Amino acid sequence: MTALWTSDEAAAATGGTATRDFSITGISIDTRTLVPGDLFVALKDQRDGHDFVAQALEKGAAAALVSRRPEGVAPDAPLLIVGDVLRGLEDLGRAGRARSHAKVAAITGSVGKTSTKEMLRVMLGAQGKVHVAEASYNNHWGVPLTLARMPRETDLAVLEIGMNHPGEIAPLARLARPHVVMITTVAPAHLAAFGGIEGIAAEKAAICEGLEPGGTAVLPGDLEVTPILLEAARAASARIVTFGEGEATWALTSAIVTPDVTVGTAATPPGPLDFKVASPGRHFAVNALGALAVAAAMGADPAVAATDLGTWAPPAGRGMREKIALDPLDEALSFDLIDDAFNANPASVAAGLGLLLAATPRNGIGRIEKGRRIAVLGDMLELGPDELALHAEIAGLPGMAQVDLVHCVGPRMRALYEALPVRQRGEWVATAPELAARAAQLVDAGDVLLVKGSKGIRVSLVVAALRALRKAPAQGQTEG
């Protein structure tokens, strides 16, 4: 396997000292996922990574990036010693970007950045050697880690950049030096740190500060804060491309949402374009259109990208839909689960409800004659002083009246519970485990159930409990 970094290259990139020669084929920050040949990076987070260096080396790490020789590590162990481990990782990422000839795209946004990044992984896969950020590696260590992991032969790279506080995006964008940036949308999220939507827009727009000369900014064209985004792009001398459902460079002219797929038609600079996303949701069509614009700006063939997009479906926690069988002998006795439990803010809750409304319950097969649309909604965190009002306003979202039952999780969601009509009130609980313990009572065959909430409120526990209701087919039976 080709070396990702040799000891000489890594030492030159970081200004560190290699205790002996080594070559690495990957980079890890977690001994649980480390594979032989990795460089283990001893970051400090909840625990000091230096405490795990010996374990990493025992598991086959080719070397460790450290600021000191940890206790219990042999004198001849392969180490790259730097003054500060995070700074060393940043330097390695900076060098990884500098040596690469890849076209680089960077994505940010209040909602949809990870899903859009994963769409691009699929779209670009047949058009070159692609390197894409793992999971949601979008913060102060995730971005440099992605760059440091980038193979030198990469043709196309896609990074994700996130934020929680002002001033986070611009340094990461300058580190990434993208040729194309995309902002998926700007919505109320992290309001506690920014005070208003304009502050969030300005922070998102700071991604333009990292653009390479002659770079392209792909921006939503139909937001109230679009002028803020356009101003930042112009200040960076970017080529501006807009996307959305109104007037835009890439304009969505129609979106047909079915229980299983969303089919979009768009007016684009290359000409009319049809595309399909293997999941219901108009917001998926809008994000996919922006991703197609990014792919085109990176030099990819948009027609090929649109074709390959049809194989993408949202991952677990981000709108993934699955059927949970309740009877091993009769697959009709099942319910549909929409797992959107990774994160939540008002805009993403509205999008999640769109997935629920696009689904059709089945009648006459469960204990209850009528199949139901059910939402389990957990607290939306970091919304600032207006958080209770923002939770209560969910009751007035378009289509909310079509939801049969709403279960609320968390102290902030009490505001929504009290704002709901009595006919829609399910249960309110303070914590997710309380509701997870009653999973079997929440759902019936024929129902469609959405679970949505901020990661910190742990409604993923409800998802796990609902999945645990699945009955495997009896011996001799196969799943349909």
Automatic annotation (TrEMBL):
Biological process, per Gene Ontology: cell division; cell wall organization; peptidoglycan biosynthetic process; regulation of cell shape
Chain ranges of the Mur ligase central domain: 107-295
Protein name: UDP-N-acetylmuramoyl-tripeptide--D-alanyl-D-alanine ligase
HAMAP family xref list: MurF
Keywords on record: ATP-binding, Cell cycle, Cell division, Cell shape, Cell wall biogenesis/degradation, Cytoplasm, Ligase, Nucleotide-binding, Peptidoglycan synthesis
Pfam families named among the record's database cross-references: Mur_ligase (PF01225), Mur_ligase_C (PF02875), Mur_ligase_M (PF08245)
Reactions listed under catalytic activity: D-alanyl-D-alanine + UDP-N-acetyl-alpha-D-muramoyl-L-alanyl-gamma-D-glutamyl-meso-2,6-diaminopimelate + ATP = UDP-N-acetyl-alpha-D-muramoyl-L-alanyl-gamma-D-glutamyl-meso-2,6-diaminopimeloyl-D-alanyl-D-alanine + ADP + phosphate + H(+)
GO cellular component, one term: cytoplasm
The organism's place on the tree of life at top rank: Bacteria
Pathway assigned to this chain's UniProt record: Cell wall biogenesis; peptidoglycan biosynthesis
Mur ligase N-terminal catalytic domain segment(s): 24-70
Source organism per UniProt: Falsigemmobacter intermedius
SUPFAM superfamilies, per the entry: MurD-like peptide ligases, catalytic domain, MurD-like peptide ligases, peptide-binding domain, MurE/MurF N-terminal domain
The keyword Nucleus is assigned to this record: no
Gene designation per UniProt: murF
Subcellular location per the Swiss-Prot or TrEMBL entry: Cytoplasm
E.C. designation(s): 6.3.2.10
